[in-house]
Structure formats: structure tokens, C-alpha cells
Write a structure and sequence with these properties.
Layout (H helix, E strand, L loop, with lengths): L29 H8 L5 H19 L1 H8 L6 E3 L8 E7 L6 E6 L6 E4 L10 E5 L16 E6 L2 E2 L2 E2 L5 E6 H5 L3
Antiparallel strand pairs: 1-2, 2-5, 3-4, 3-6, 6-9, 7-8
Length: about 180
Amino acid sequence: TTWLRSDLPRLGFAADARRPALRLHPCAHVADAVLAVAALRSPRQAALNAVAVATVVGALAGAPDLHAIVRPPAAPLAVAPFSTSPYALWVSLDTRHPEDFAVVLESGFWANRRAAVASPGGAAPPRAELRLRRLSHRASTRDVDDGTVWVERRPRFLGREFAGGERVGRYSLPYLVRLP
């Protein structure tokens, strides 16, 4: 009965007198359980995953603008109607994407103007409305028809418009005024 005595060391047991507390890991999936048991959860990895998700969301949000950059809509043609006022110029364009274009007037008689193309509603084609102002140093009326109207693309990405676009159309001022 000497082997039952408490003062002798117990052989064959590697544990000490303290018992470790049972660790609980709530997991919804087997992969979560493996990560929890192996102690592979890392705050750094979680932050990198969050950055990756934000990058993918940003790329998906910019997909329509990237598509417009890679494959832009066709250049529009100028069509009627035109403004009846001598101090307003309507440039109506035949396009299904009016938000992708702007109109610029360059003239020595009229103050240079820029206007975005917008849909007025109804059956009317999209148009840019330019309010014409004379330059103060020009008194001669013979240069009234002096001017060139440019149609340019409006490059945008994620809601921001960039300056300067590709010029895709050129019309003289007399041509636009005399459209049927």
C-alpha cells in the first residue's frame, strides 16, 4: 500500500494542481472554429481584408465611368431646334448620353462660353444653352456670325469632372443658326 501514500510523488501525471479554464469560441462555421483553435486570428489581417473590400467596392462604383473612358459614346451631331433669341444659342445634339458632352463657343465678337449638355425633357433632343454677351471692345455688327462651336467630351470618374475634354465636333456659328 505504499503506492497509495500521498507524500510520495505521483508518477505518470504531467499536469500540475491548477486546472486551466475552458476557452469558449463562438463560431458560425468550421473555418472560424479552425482559426480560433489554432489562434490564427490577427488584427492586421482583418485590417488588410477591410482595405481589400473597400478597394473592390471603389472599383465597382467606378465601373460605369471606366466603361465611358474605355469605350466612349459616339460623337453627336448638331440638330434642330435652335433659339429664336439673338442673345441665346441652343446647340441641340443627337445623343443618348448628354451628360458626357459639353459645348464651347469661341468667338471674337461674343464672350467665350461653355455649357453642359442636358435633356430639357419631353421629345426635345438634349441641348446646351449658351447665353451670348458681346465683348465691350467690339462695336461692329459685321462680326456677329464670327465664332466656332466645339463639342467636347466631359471626362468624369467617381462623380468628379476633369478639366479639358477631347473635342469631337466643330460647327461654325452661321451653320448652327441656319439649321432647319
